[in-house]
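Supplementary Note 2. Why include the ligand at all?

Several targets in our set were suspected to adopt different conformations when bound, so apo predictions alone were not considered sufficient. For every target with a known small-molecule partner we therefore ran a joint prediction. The input for zinc ion is given below.
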Amino acid sequence: MRRWRLAARVCGAWLAAAGALRAAEPATKEFIWAIPKAELHIHFEGTLEPEHYLELAKRNALPVRYATAAAVRQRQRDGRDLKSFIEVYEELLSVIRTEADFREVTLAHLRRTKAQQIVYTEMFFDPQMHTERGIPLATVFAGLLAAQAAARDELGVRVEYIMCFNRDRSAESALAILEASRPWHRRILGVGLDNPEEKDFPRKFAGVFARARSLGLRATSHCDVNQPNTLAHHWGCLDELKVERIDHGINVLDDPALIAAVKARGIGLTVCPTLMEAEIPGRLEFRAKAVKQMLELGLLVTINSDDPGLMRGLLVGDLMLAVHQTVGLTKAEIVTLAENSFRIAWLPEAERATYLAAVRAAAAIK
Ligand SMILES: [Zn+2]
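The joint prediction is reproduced in token form.
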């Protein structure tokens, strides 16, 4: 018996050492693809691929300025600042009109992400961008919820939704959407804020967020990268909006007190090292280094794709690989990124535990 126990101890120690060796190994594409992942920073409107845009325009008999998907992509590449980015964004999403369109666009994205083992998605959508062009809220929700059911039944993946308000629109408009959407509040997880970061942000939305929280909704907000007054905006999101996550949030690294607060409060950070950044010299490297530094600090950092339809179609697996190729990630760091994506997801605890166990099981096999 004693000999067996000794053998078990030696064997256990050997396995632990082998596991540690594997964990310290550099990540590979195969390893990254095999690990189950969640995505928490993805905009429905930004998932539309140029080919699908042209198809929907044709089906809905809408005029387009582009003859080919390549011409759409060229227009996307030409837009370098946030203003032109949003112009293209709104131009493309204008072809999404019917319940079937909302369903199809969501499902097309989830089909692509499933191939990279993204098994759970919390997707932003911007109702103001649709209601202002005459699309009823009921159409938006019907399409998104039909996609949710089809994702579960046909693809075996899960999608949930976060309703975003636009920071360049009024607080009154956000509040009106919040109230108008009450019939569907049980079908969404929470609220967020996106679009350009204006100087009255985030205080302008404190009342809207208080109301959302009182209605049982969770809260997150974008704090885009290197924006004016970014540190004040981060603090405002934490203290006035009482967010649980910050979308992007790279400038947290500029303030030791903010790092400490984000860590102590368990705030999730949804960083997006996208290809658009890769095309501007130094910017992917900047974001990839931030991911590495956040991992080393023990922050709850994740990698996300933001608007893959507008950013050359790169998904979470592609971006993890890009970060690895830029700063070098170990297998253990890839596992931590995947675990973080489920740790900060707005999941019931039992489901979180199931996803985390699946991550560890996949990591052990590889
Ligand atoms: Zn975003």
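The beta strands are 37-43, 118-125, 158-166, 190-194, 218-223, 245-248, 268-271, 300-303. The two ends are 33 Å apart (CA to CA). Comparable summaries for the other entries are listed in the accompanying table.
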